[in-house]
């Protein structure tokens, strides 16, 4: 008989949010794989729980090397509990590799649902929640970050991001450039903690606020792109958008394709507009 891999959600702030099953799993697991064993110790103390199983570290630096070891434990019949510092394992945290490896070996994988910064921020944002997508952390380099944002500039679903506080102002400024200064957003800070704050407003306004300095765990929720139709963008505007992307470093072919997606038009229409403008010497 193979064992079971249990992914357990942990509090993102308030320890009282810990699901009751978390304590049971911590006490009964044969192996507890923790992103930070020191934080795990603080968690078990706060919950009044004592782990009987073996505790091992499982973080980004040793995830690849430790996964086979944990799979062997599972194949031997062990109940392995995976916890990260906050929230659900695998969601911008260690866990995906272990889940994929366990599934490949036909090992049962289950979860203890728990707090989620993504869903909490989305619910508090005041923005549409019927359709959304989670984009995780953006690249640290400015050029790569702006390029990634431009890829989803026409996305109509609400977007959710994680970000470090010291990069928040730069990220919001890049979002204002890629999505438009007036695109609505919400910055959710220190969710469920003592100094919880949700700041809502246009991206440009939020970027100015963040430039003064922000601290704590950050989740950013951004409104999706507005509905647009081909009739709203004339040839001049199509050419302008292509030029903006080219000036930012995109190749013309890529820029035309991206603008076509934004405008809801065939690529040929945008291409013809660019060619016509070139012939006219614009």
Strand order of the largest sheet: 3-2-4-1-5
Structural class: alpha/beta
**Rounded radius of gyration (Å):** 23 Å
Rounded average pLDDT: 93
User: Hey, roughly how much beta strand do the residues contain?
Assistant: 15-25%
EC number: 2.1.1.198
Protein name: Ribosomal RNA small subunit methyltransferase I
Keywords: Cytoplasm, Methyltransferase, rRNA processing, S-adenosyl-L-methionine, Transferase
Family: Belongs to the methyltransferase superfamily. RsmI family.
Structural notes for this entry:
There is one protein chain. The protein is α/β, with parallel strands linked by helices and 282 residues long. It contains 11 helices and 10 strands. It has helices at 20-28, 37-47, 63-75, 96-104, 117-125, 142-151, 168-179, 203-210, 235-247, 252-263, 267-279; strands at residues 4-8, 31-34, 54-57, 79-83, 108-112, 132-137, 158-163, 184-189, 197-202, 218-222. A 5-stranded parallel β-sheet has the order 3-2-4-1-5, with helices on both faces. The chain has a 5-stranded mixed β-sheet with strand order 6-7-10-8-9, sandwiched between helices. Helix 6 links the parallel strand 6 (132-137) and strand 7. Helix 6 crosses helix 7 (168-179), helix 7 runs antiparallel to helix 8 and helix 9 (235-247) crosses helix 11. The chain is elongated, with a radius of gyration of 23 Å. Catalyzes the 2'-O-methylation of the ribose of cytidine 1402 (C1402) in 16S rRNA. Belongs to the methyltransferase superfamily. RsmI family. Its EC number is 2.1.1.198. It comes from Streptomyces pyxinicus. It catalyses: cytidine(1402) in 16S rRNA + S-adenosyl-L-methionine = 2'-O-methylcytidine(1402) in 16S rRNA + S-adenosyl-L-homocysteine + H(+).
């Amino acid at each position: 008989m193979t064992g079971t891999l249990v992914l357990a959600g942990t509090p993102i702030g308030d320890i009282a949010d810990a699901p009751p099953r978390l304590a049971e799993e911590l006490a009964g697991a044969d192996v507890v794989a923790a992103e930070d064993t020191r934080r795990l110790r603080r968690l078990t103390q706060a919950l009044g729980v004592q782990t009987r199983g073996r505790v091992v570290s499982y973080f980004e630096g040793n995830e690849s090397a430790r996964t086979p070891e944990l799979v062997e434990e599972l194949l031997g019949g062990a109940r392995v509990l995976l916890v990260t510092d906050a929230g659900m394992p695998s969601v911008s945290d260690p866990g995906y590799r272990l889940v994929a490896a366990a599934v490949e070996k036909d090992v049962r994988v289950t979860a203890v649902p728990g707090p989620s910064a993504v869903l909490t921020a989305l619910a508090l944002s005041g923005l549409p929640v019927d359709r959304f997508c989670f984009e995780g952390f953006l690249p640290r380099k400015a050029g790569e970050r702006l390029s990634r944002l431009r890829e989803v500039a026409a996305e109509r679903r609400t977007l959710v991001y994680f970000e470090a506080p010291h990069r928040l102002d730069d990220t919001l400024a890049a979002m204002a450039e890629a999505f438009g200064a007036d695109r609505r957003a919400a910055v959710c800070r220190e969710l469920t903690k003592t100094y919880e704050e949700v700041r809502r407003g246009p991206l440009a306004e939020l970027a100015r606020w963040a430039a003064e300095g922000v601290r704590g765990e950050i989740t950013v929720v951004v409104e999706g792109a507005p509905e647009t139709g081909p009739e709203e963008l004339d040839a001049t505007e199509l050419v302008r958008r292509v030029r903006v992307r080219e000036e930012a470093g995109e190749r013309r072919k890529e820029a035309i394709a991206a603008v076509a997606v934004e405008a809801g038009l065939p690529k040929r229409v945008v291409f013809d507009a660019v060619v016509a403008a070139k012939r006219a010497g614009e």
